[in-house]
Amino acid sequence: MNSDEERIALFLDYENLAIGARDDLGGMAFDLKPLADALAERGRVVVRRAYADWSYFDQDRRMLTTQHVELIEIPQRMGAVRKNAADIKMAVDAIELCFERSYITTFVICTGDSDFTPLVGKLRELNRRVIGVGLQASTSALLPPACDEFLFYERLEGVNVPERHKSSRGGGGGGGRRGGRGAPPASPPRTPAAAAPQRRAAEEVAEPEAEPEAAPTEQPDDVDLPRLVTQTLSGLQRSSGGAVLASTLKRALLRKDPTFNEADHGFRAFGELLRNLADRRVIELTPGTAKGDPEVGFPEESSDEEDAFELLRSVVSALRAESGPPPLSGLKNQLRKRRPKFSEKEFGFGGFLQFCKAARARGIVTMEWSDEADDYVLGVPEADGEQ
Fold first, then answer.
1. Is pLDDT at 374 greater than 70 in this prediction?
2. Spatial CB neighbours of 102, under 8 Å, sequence gap ≥ 6
3. Between residues 85 and 170, which one has the greater pLDDT?
4. pLDDT on residue 10
5. Which residue of 147, 323, 380, 386 has the smallest Cβ count within 10 Å?
6. Domain around 260
7. pLDDT of residue 347
8. At 102, which CATH number?
């Protein structure tokens, strides 16, 4: 086992996440898979715990069980006030685990509640790295700055938010609408009087979830291998900020999918797979610190990537001439009308917004926020300069 690997303990304030997803993301059900994939790029998750009164989240229990999450029951007692019951239990368990399991290097605290800020501070004081996870609109402004890293759930790869519910500004660390449970909550408060509305809320959250354990397993032939490698490599580069070794990339792929095997794709070794992708200019290999373990990166700019940026510029230019600067929403579909298989992930970008920002940084398009459109609008530098 690699001693340099981060060992992660995952703690989920589940009611906060499930109700937040329902309220802020157009009734979406919370899905752990995108978060699990993001953590797989950062280390090895050795503890998974979720806290809630599970009588309200029957369908969600199935999804979490398939992700090997230990469900901690916080029952609602009749005639008793249970405010912060899950918060207290979760904080006590986290501190206890910190002392009992010295090998755990990173704690992931999934909540938007500012009540957890002291816990985050204490864990960091005890020399543990802390990653926070929450919904952007309902995360207290106090929580993200307290963490070593904070992930907004709706920005994670694999979370498909309905267009009209997407947070367009993408500033991060905002004050949110609820600001934790201390502020007037948009979702039902945790009191016995709110039991019935909260049960309905939980049912609404759970309803879209459709028997995840019955979903067919993706077969190797169905996997877009270049996209899987570039997406994982991009995540590793963002999280580590340094060189990514082939061995590190392989471990991350295995954390995403423990069944991953290069032999299923026709390669005798992982190095052979990487050399094939390097020959196709999908990635770039340079000698690493150890023989047989090269550094993996992206080519400075491949011809395919240049073509993709040119496609964006051409579509934006045409739409602008037709009806004015086009908004970001729906723009990806316009690109796919010209190139049906277009995907920014093929070039290592985590999302279409990131792809467009990269094009702006290269001077290919302009991109500004429009209050009137409540979205980013794009243009082309030459045409914008004519105005």
1. yes
2. none
3. 85
4. 97
5. 386
6. 221-297
7. 77
8. 3.40.50.1010
Same-domain check for residues 97 and 239: no
- Work out the number of other CB atoms within 10 angstroms of the CB of residue 283: 24
* Distance between CA atoms of residues 294 and 271, nearest Å: 9
Query: Across residues 255-283, what is the average pLDDT?
Result: 88
Task: Report long-range pairs for 370-377 (Cβ below 8 Å, ≥24 apart).
Answer: 370/325, 370/327, 373/327, 374/168, 375/168, 375/327, 375/328, 375/329, 376/168, 376/327, 376/328, 377/325, 377/326, 377/327, 377/328
The structure tokens 């954390």 sit at: 255
- Whole-angstrom Cα distance, residue 310 to residue 121? 46
Indicate the residue among 214, 236, 258 that finishes a domain. 214
Q: Where is the domain boundary, 214, 233, 257?
A: 214
pLDDT digits (tens, 9 = 90+) for 114-132: 999 999 999 999 999 999 9
Owner of token pair 């981060």? 6
Same domain for 179 and 112 = yes
Query: pTM of the full predicted structure?
Result: 0.64
357-365 long-range contacts (CB < 8 A, ≥24 apart) are: 358/309, 359/309, 359/312, 359/313, 362/309, 364/309, 364/310, 364/312, 364/313, 365/312, 365/313, 365/316
Residue 184 has pLDDT above 70, yes or no: no
Give the helix ranges, DSSP H, for the chain. 14-24, 33-40, 58-66, 85-100, 117-125, 143-146, 195-206, 225-240, 246-256, 270-279, 303-323, 331-338, 352-361, 381-386
Can you name the residues that pair with 72 across neighbouring β-strands?
51
